[in-house]
Design brief:
about 575 residues, alpha/beta, Jelly Rolls, Immunoglobulin-like, eight-stranded parallel barrel, 14 helices, 28 strands, about 25% helix
Length: about 575
């Protein structure tokens, strides 16, 4: 017996020694460093089996992660690959590969098997690989990046992260913060984006002003005007140029009207109980902006002292250098002038993530000295934007999921998951702008080639917690994306009845605006999403088949495509929504 006891003790000691030598994995393991990389301009990497671990990659180059790929002018597909090993996992932990950001979209393979994908620039995402990795085995991780503009690549860190709860993978430091609640008119608002040049044949403030009563009747609270400044001519794109190439921050493009015309537009909007915000470009200017002549040191320069663009694709603009205090002072003074002089109610800031947060905080404080409830909308999705003065950020997450659901590449569960994850990413009181299109993307009527599906997707976006957006022309079913660089008028006569349907949805939203939103899933389908807000029950059918269910005790059908029978069965046709109470 003594021999057996001695053997057991020796075995225990050996196990303890082994455990001490091989530390249990309960902390992230960085995958940053050199990966193998190859361009795939013809999108033939899948056919050539770039994802297989046994592939000969001797002709691939070394590429640093995080970072952009070397050719800044290349848009398209690029493949990354590297190997890794893991040790024993701590008890109760699972394992995920976490990407802080890619530019723009990613498909991920592990050991030759496709394990996940992600759509969208600058967003943290993870893929659970718990059941696909083995201790001390050599694994191959392969990522295909699809870049749609500017530099591309795996532009932020990648790590293997042990986890117990999924929310721990997406939680950000900002989520522990509480930002001051925005003014109620901001919290409840529906936004309407306007490209003045394209809005009417005349393309003027006066012509837009005549359309304001119709816009108000649609249910709009905030008018957002794409930049109205004079447009640069040097390196201009197209015959008209982009309004995001600003020649004079204090000026107005003469084809739109003059300062008095603009002030009249603001006053009329206010008389109709609407607010008006201006789109401002703080990250870069036109090449013929006088600031380049007077203050070249305010701009980013190469080693030879030449002013440079933010990237190769944005060749019509010059990049500012916010390390210069005088530049920041100029911009804050300029923003104050517009609020003081024209009585606007706030700003939408282009590529806000590329400007330092410290600047935003100071700019907001300066503008609040004139209007305490000034509104800042950031074009960006990073949570810390809310901690630097921005009331609202872009909800790219919902736009991307809707694109995938309507393309049959994702399930409606992803909507609920994405909304739930926001609680672990954004500060309390953060507002998110929900949309199915804007001037940077194709029209929703183009993406959703079914008129019912188009309205259903937007109705869901509008009823989620947050603030809905309509891009002028969307309410009439315009399927063409107005050019940024030419005169390209909105087509207003496609689906005029759509405007009434969207107005009804916004009215229903106003009836329950202060009610909590509860999202639920149907047990028997992966394509039907339910939403409860106050007494309203909304159902969204993203399938190609009619969906029927018992609605015992329902009081009234409020809208949408519901068909009712005598036995309290409600039927929702394919690609349609319905709401009852």
């Amino acid at each position: 017996m003594y021999k057996h006891l001695k053997l057991i003790v020796l075995m225990i000691l050996a196990f303890l020694m082994l455990s001490n030598c091989q530390k249990l994995m309960d902390k992230p393991l960085s995958l940053d460093g050199n990966w193998k990389f190859i361009y795939d301009a013809n999108d033939e990497g899948a056919l050539k089996r770039y994802h297989l671990p046994e592939l000969d990659r001797s002709d691939w180059i070394d590429q640093a992660v995080p970072g952009f790929w070397p050719d800044g002018s290349y848009d398209g597909f690029g493949w990354y690959s590297r190997t890794f090993q893991i040790g024993p996992m701590a008890a109760g932990y699972k394992l995920a590969v976490v990407f802080e950001s890619v530019d723009d979209n990613a498909v991920v393979w592990l050991d030759g098997r496709r394990v996940g994908e992600h759509i969208g620039y600058g967003q943290k995402f993870f893929i659970d690989i718990s059941n696909r990795v083995y201790i001390d085995s050599l694994h191959t991780l392969t990522v295909r990046i699809d870049d749609s503009g500017g530099p591309g690549g795996i532009n932020q860190s990648v790590a293997l992260v042990p986890f117990i709860f999924e929310e721990d993978l997406v939680r950000t430091p900002a989520s522990y913060e509480i930002m001051p609640a925005s003014a109620e008119w901001i919290q409840d608002a529906t936004l309407y984006e306007i490209f003045v040049r394209q809005h009417t044949k005349e393309g003027t403030f006066k012509a837009l002003e005549a359309d304001l009563p119709r816009i108000k009747a649609l249910g709009i609270d905030i008018l957002w005007l794409i930049p109205i400044h004079p447009i640069g001519e040097i390196h201009r794109k197209g015959s008209k140029g982009s309004p995001y190439s600003v020649k004079d921050y204090y000026g107005i493009s003469p084809d739109l009207g003059n300062l008095d015309d603009f002030k009249s537009l603001v006053q009329t909007a206010h008389s109709l109980d609407m607010k008006l915000i201006l789109d401002f470009v703080m990250n870069h200017s036109a090449w013929d902006n006088q600031l380049i002549v007077d203050h070249k040191d305010w701009y980013s320069q190469d080693a030879d002292g030449n002013v440079v663009s933010p990237n190769d694709d944005w060749s019509d603009v010059a990049d500012f250098n916010y390390d210069v205090p005088e530049l920041q002072s100029y911009m804050k003074t300029m923003l104050r002038w517009w609020v003081q002089e024209t009585d606007i109610d706030g700003f939408r800031f282009d590529v806000a993530e590329l400007v330092p947060n410290t600047f935003w905080s100071e700019a907001k404080a300066e503008c609040q000295k004139i209007k305490s409830d000034i509104f800042f909308l950031a074009e960006g999705a990073k949570p810390d934007l809310h901690l630097s003065g921005h009331d609202m950020t872009y909800s790219w997450n919902i736009w991307e999921v809707l694109m995938e659901i309507t393309s049959n590449n994702a399930l409606v569960y992803e909507i609920k998951k994405s909304i739930d994850n926001e609680k672990f990413m954004y500060p309390k009181n953060s507002l998110r702008m929900r949309f199915t299109e804007n001037h940077d993307k194709e029209r929703s009527r183009h993406n959703f080639n079914d008129s019912n599906l188009n309205l259903t997707a937007w109705a869901l976006a509008a009823m989620l917690p947050g603030n809905p957006l309509i891009y002028a022309g969307q309410e009439r079913g315009d399927a063409h994306k107005p050019s940024l660089f030419e005169k390209d008028i909105v087509i207003w006569d496609k689906e005029p009845q759509l405007e009434n349907e969207m107005a009804k949805i916004l009215q229903l939203r106003r009836d329950v605006i202060h009610e909590e939103v509860e999202i639920f899933l149907e047990d028997n389908t992966k394509e039907i999403l339910g939403l409860k807000r106050g007494e309203q029950i909304w159902m969204f059918n993203f399938s190609n088949n009619a969906f029927s269910f018992k609605a015992k005790g329902y009081n009234k059908i409020l809208g949408g495509g519901f068909e009712a029978s005598d036995d309290e069965t409600l039927t929702l046709p394919a690609n349609q929504f319905g709401v009852f109470k």
